[in-house]
Design brief:
Elements (H helix, E strand, L loop, with lengths): L25 H10 L2 H8 L6 H13 L22 H24 L19 H19 L14 H16 L13 E3 L8 E3 H26 L6 H5 L12
Antiparallel strand pairs: 1-2
């Protein structure tokens, strides 16, 4: 019988032949998880002999299907809370923005620009400046997260358009995020939220608010700050935008 390491062979391996060595392969991990759920065994039995690409698609589809346990599968395949997709993501993104301030300062020094000149740059006349992207994003983080916790937001502070003040505001916002506990966001999905008039005069459900407003709004300001740096000639690439990544994030990854 072929092994999982031979790409031209067919999948899947029998469940009993799964070893620690080949568990790293997504199809094998998915098979193991399916085998742990009685509802999934019938589905898994219909997959013998499928090519690798088709098998991966079928297995992952089965794991995500409500019939087979959905995202919170009995095998523990994947489960994200509102906390998981907001607080750690925002903490990571704010570190990226902190790095962008260093890129801006390096750009000014290397091109003999006036100190702080990058902070006043913008992509278009009707868009926020580079420095304002940081202030507004920090304010939005606090606004969105206090809404999700059903609390009142404190008035945002006035922040001077100088590098130390912007760095301090990022640090302050990260400290705020670290005070949030998963239980603080437990009921966030069950609420409805009023959108800002500049977005739409409407209300939106919790899931859509988190996915399509909170996260999209957050990444918009990071992306614009990145675009301003690139427009001015700073050597900031996709690696900088993604930030420091580690393969050991604590999740049950393949």
């Amino acid at each position: 019988m072929g092994t999982i390491t031979e790409p031209r062979r067919r999948y899947p391996l029998p469940i009993e032949s799964i070893t620690k060595r080949n568990l790293q392969f997504p199809p094998v991990k998915a098979m193991l998880l399916l085998s742990q759920c009685a509802q999934c065994k019938t589905h898994q039995g219909n997959l013998d002999g499928l090519p690798k690409v088709r098998l991966e698609r079928e297995l992952l589809s089965a794991l995500a299907s409500p019939v087979h346990g959905g995202i919170g599968h009995d095998g523990g395949y994947m489960s994200f809370s509102i906390y998981d997709i907001t607080v750690p993501v925002m903490l990571h993104g704010l570190v990226v923005m902190d790095d962008y301030l260093l890129h801006a300062q390096n750009l000014e020094r290397s091109n003999s620009l006036d100190p702080g000149s990058v902070l006043t740059s913008r992509l278009a006349p009707d868009m926020l400046t580079f420095g304002e992207q940081f202030v507004v994003n920090c304010n939005k983080v606090e606004l969105h997260m206090t809404k999700l916790m059903n609390r009142n937001q404190a008035a945002p502070p006035n922040v001077a358009m100088i590098y130390p003040a912007l760095q301090g505001r990022l640090l302050e916002t990260r400290s705020f995020l670290r005070t949030i506990q998963p239980e603080d966001l437990a009921n966030a999905q069950s609420h409805i939220y009023q959108l800002a008039p500049s977005v739409a005069k409407d209300w939106i459900g919790g899931d859509d608010y988190i996915r399509h407003v909170v996260l999209a709004d957050f990444f918009f300001h990071i992306a614009v700050a990145h675009a301003i740096l690139r427009h001015l000639g700073a050597p900031a690439g996709k690696k900088d935008y993604l930030g420091h990544l580690t393969p050991h994030g604590g999740g049950d990854y393949f």
